[in-house]
Amino acid sequence: MRGLRASSLLLCGVVLIQLLAVQIDAQRPKTQWKTLSGFSPRVIARGGFSGLFPDSSLDAYNFAMQTSVLDAVLWCDLQLTKDGAGICFPDLTMSNASNVESVYPKGQSTYPVNGVPTPGWFTIDLSLRALTNVSLIRGILSRSDKFDGNGYTISTVQTVNKEMKPQGFWLNVQHDAFYAQHNLSMSNFLVSVTKTVIVDFISSPEVNFFRKIAGRFGREGPSFVFRFLEKEQFEPTTNRTYGSILSNLTFVKTFASGILVPKSYVLPLDDKQYLLPSTSLVQDAHKAGLEVFVSGFANDVDIAHDYSFDPVSEYLSFMDNGNFSVDGVLSDFPITASASVGKLKTLKTYKHFSASPTWPETQQNKLTKWFNVSVDFLVISKNGASGDYPGCTNLAYEKAINDGADVIDCSVQMSSDGKPFCSSSIDLGNTTMVAQSPLRNRSTSVPEISSVNGIYTFTLTWPEIQTLTPAISNPYSRRFNMFRNPNERNSGKLLSLSEFLNLAKNSTTLSGVLISVENAAYLREKQGLDVVKAVLDALTETGYSNRTTTKVMIQSTNSSVLVDFKKQSQYETVYKVEETIRDILDSAIEDIKTFASAVVIGKSSVFPVVDGFVTGQTNVVERLQKSQLPVYVELFQNEFVSQPFDFFSDATVEINSYVTGPGINGTITEFPFTAARYRRNRCLASKETLSYMAPVQPGGLLEVVSPGSLPPAEAPNPVFTDADVTEPPLPPVTAKAPTPTPGTPSTTAPAPSGQTQLTLSLLLSVFAMVLASLLLM
């Protein structure tokens, strides 16, 4: 079977080997966990690693076991075939997660499911032998389709058990009543299969199902878990809503030892997708003697804004928030759940925004102890914590500092009156609400900067700019409808460079500031503004020229700018390579070393990406570091759509791959909290290479893709040469003639009218006649 061969290849080292997967003692020793048993929460892999591979495929189950805690539980959605075989398949109907429609185009039927007529291709219409022709494919369209051509077969319960030999096995029976209507008995199948297969958990949303299987498995049988659906839905046996059953947990305890609930039962959200205070469900269930398992965890779906798109933060809020700990999580990405259970378990996720739950002070104090771990790795902000607040505002910078950034950054722009200030774009339309302000008529065309009109910083005075409302960046709003922290989308105020420097100077945790300078030549030639002098003056005025504790880094994509700074100061200079490159010449490196002490490159210059997959690894980082040039990489974001599939929609996995793989010297990130929490992981300080901290094997996932599904080859990225580095010196400052501000009275003299011109002509004629007569005298 190609799937198993591919899986073996993958798991032998072609892709990552247990990246961040925490291998804990199989005996699960008791800890400080506030679970019912005192053990750490269980990681339950829904259909295996179904966030990447087709749900319930053997590769999905195999990969889940290899990247999860040792006692991870494999979840199987149990369905019955026409001849009574038990298979693992995610739903009652098959068209969504298999190619059954193309194999049996006339096989559609319509049956009542919980009283609702439901069309589809049902497992009860096909024998196990007929299903051998059907292959598993992705069931969620937003996930990669590259593994759909691997021909993954549908497996029986016995096959999954035999091939995987899981430490824990969970069978979910979603539609017992439906199968009973078609003379197929789930209870009889379960009693039979448990004679040869160890089943640890059986779950169902139907009360009557538990009544039928009660007492049929003996004292050493599986644990029964009652599955709650949405609160407004009706349980078919009792004809009560699941919400009403929730109020009587002692009733549930009569037939089950645990409950499985959606996330909202524990941490509900308001209509804006912010967290509300946690419910008392976990504590109430524990008092009733019931374990609480929570479903719905996936890295590639929208989560509460409070988590800043970080799935680890979400897991920790359920597992270890100081008030309770759930007993297990059902996840499509068990690697992230495992990392949360294991080495990150003492890193509490505390309050990000005012809407977040309040974390106990003792937990926050524990968190600070992790700062003592020394790792040579810088966390550099990108416009502050611009994933949480409008970039380059006081709130974005303050959050970046509080979140553990080492270096905060300011992209310097110039106002028309020569004030340097922080803004991520020279076009204020990209960073503020200027288009909705009285200054919206200031749009101009500057082809040297952009092919489209904009309202540029150098066309407004600093007092005018201070009146503008900042706007949060939403890079994935149009294509993916993903929005950052909408409650704070216009919060904060823009800072002058001096205000930024004073804010950083007053911090006791920052090690440095990074000041980015672009468009210096244009500003000198066309606007009469010297941004280099403005930056140096601001640094001197705020006392940085004499400071030794706070490092100052000046960054630019222009070598001429850095040469100019180097001539006039002793500040560290950082050269940013804008292009995505596959290599860099020695001569280019030598040129860079003459004016820069560090280099910034893009993520794809380290791990090239084609069609969402990492294709390999360049040697750019290695070559620069061999020449004693530290390498900082940008841009790291938490949104899963910003990451290749190789990183499992987890920003922490991505960061780990860059740090422990090519060994970059720092991340430039819009979400400093995630990078800083990762850096505090004690595993990074270990002298030994731990298996769960191994980096992604570049191009590994593509090795598992069938040849017919491989993405087309793309032209290679260019090699960076010394010609790309060399630039002419910055031009001198050209004084700019004053121009009237639109909408204000002109100060220039009015053009002479026709009558005035005639009068002047006559006067000149008279003057000429008088002068001629005098000369003749």
TrEMBL record:
Residues 713-754 are annotated as: Disordered. Its EC number is 3.1.4.46. It catalyses: a sn-glycero-3-phosphodiester + H2O = an alcohol + sn-glycerol 3-phosphate + H(+). SUPFAM superfamilies: PLC-like phosphodiesterases. Residues 733-754 have a biased composition (Low complexity). Keywords: Glycerol metabolism, Hydrolase, Signal. Residues 1-26 form the signal peptide. The keyword Thylakoid does not apply. InterPro entries: GP_PDE_dom (IPR030395), PLC-like_Pdiesterase_TIM-brl (IPR017946). Pfam families: GDPD. Belongs to the glycerophosphoryl diester phosphodiesterase family. PANTHER family: GLYCEROPHOSPHODIESTER PHOSPHODIESTERASE GDPD5-RELATED (PTHR43620:SF7), GLYCEROPHOSPHORYL DIESTER PHOSPHODIESTERASE (PTHR43620). This is glycerophosphodiester phosphodiesterase. It comes from Brassica napus (Rape). The lineage of its organism: Eukaryota, Viridiplantae, Streptophyta, Embryophyta, Tracheophyta.
